[in-house]
Amino acid sequence: MQASAPVQTQQAPAGRTLDVDDLTVRYGSAVAVDGVSLSIEPGEVVALLGPSGCGKTTLLRVIAGFVRQVAGRVLVDGGAIDHLPANQRNVGIVFQNYALFPHMNVTENVAYGLRARGQRGPAVEARVSRMLDMVQLGGFRDRLPRQLSGGQQQRVALARALAVEPSILLLDEPFAALDRNLRLDMQIEVKRLQRQLGLTTILVTHDQDEAMSVADRIAVMNKGTVEQFDTPVAIYDRPQTLFVNGFIGTTNLLPGKVIARDGDGATVALDAGAALHLPAPAGIAAGTTVLLSVRPEQLVLSTEATAESWPIVPGLSLPLGSQIIHEARTTDGVALKIVEPRLRAPAGDARRFCALAPDARPSLFPRSTQ
Fold first, then answer.
1. CB–CB of 166/63 below 8 Å?
2. How far apart are CA 30 and CA 17, in angstroms?
């Protein structure tokens, strides 16, 4: 029996590089973006993450051509695009409110960008059909936006952005209006399409879980600057600043003092009562007052006192699905949260001491940066 020929899979097109070089934007005397530089790899998803007013949406709008910077450059594949108006940058954008035309049906909305570029005829119809099939809306082509759910409207907006074959895809908080379950479904869908098409993508969000799950790298912004640009795992496990440490995830901050320094490590005497030997940044010398940041899942409860544990006053224990969150307080008054698997929590808990888990990766910061 003759073997069948292997199935040929279509290769996703190569993404484009995107460089933001020393970008500055001012609104009057206020600096919205302050000397930001980012280098984004082809086909990469990068999240701009930060609190309201940190400059992330302004940065996205500069890339799209809607806002003009006072300094710096935007480059695609090494070529500057700053001189181009928004409609000539070949950038697709999905807005938070989707911005669909209410008087146009799904087909007309998706075709709008193509027709605005002068394309007509069967090629447009074929492209629209392909995009609608890709976002699983082939049976909705004659519906108006008001006849669609929020998730369906978002898919139409995404199909419209992808129809023009953009070199860069920009997503401006596209999941914010969706409920939690639908938001997760759409995050997975967008990630699948992005991988399928190989598009270089920038996602603006204030939702850390969204950034951690969707992005290849995250730029954490604060007051117009990027405080850290790294992978989600590195940002969570190795935050470079106290702001990043507190903005990403939940953490406990324990005050202490460095009593000895040796090589890459330091011995820290916690105000709570323990002495710990920890990895420490080079700039933290003996005598420095510090804050030890440790995630709730990196703490363990114990019934025994040791040199590396400290006493606690237990508080509430809150079961949350597969986990249980314990509230506690140190003898010097610092509130703690400790997370452990719910099924491992003993009944009638009498554990009165806390310590670092064996695989904990705490972070150490000078207290002056608080």
1. no
2. 30
Contact 269, 275 (CB under 8 A): yes
239 closest CA partner among 337, 364, 370: 364
Structure tokens of 128?
């629209």
Query: Tokens 């596209």 — which residue?
Result: 174
Dig out the tokens for 355 from the structure.
């310590």
Give the pair of three-digit tokens for residue 39. 């280098």
The parent domain of residue 319 ranges over 250-369
Looking up residue 106, the CATH number of its domain turns out to be 3.40.50.300
Residue count (the chain): 370
Give the residues across from 335 on adjacent strands.
329
Contact 337, 252 (CB under 8 A): yes
Domain count, the chain: 2
- Alpha carbon 342 to its chain's center: 28
Q: How far, in Å, CA of 263 to CA of 280, rounded? A: 9
Q: Enter the DSSP assignment of 122.
A: H
pLDDT digits (tens, 9 = 90+) for 280-332: 988 899 999 999 999 999 999 999 899 999 999 999 999 888 899 999 999 99
- What DSSP assignment string belongs to 287-314? T-EEEEEE-GGGEEEESS--TTEEEEEE
Q: Cα(24)–Cα(32) distance, rounded to whole angstroms? A: 8
Enter the tokens of residue 137: 């809306």
How far is it, in rounded angstroms, from Cα 237 to Cα 20?
A: 26
Round to whole Å and give the CA distance between 129 and 131: 5
333-355: per-residue pLDDT in tens? 999 999 998 877 776 678 899 99
Q: Is the pTM of this model over 0.70?
A: yes
CB atoms within 10 A of CB 122: 7
Contact predicate 243/230, CB 8 Å: no
Q: How far is CA 310 from CA 241, 357, 363, in A?
A: 26, 13, 18
Radius of gyration for the alpha carbons in the chain, expressed in angstroms and rounded: 25
CATH number at residue 303: 2.40.50.140
Helices and strands in the chain: count of H runs, count of E runs: 8, 20
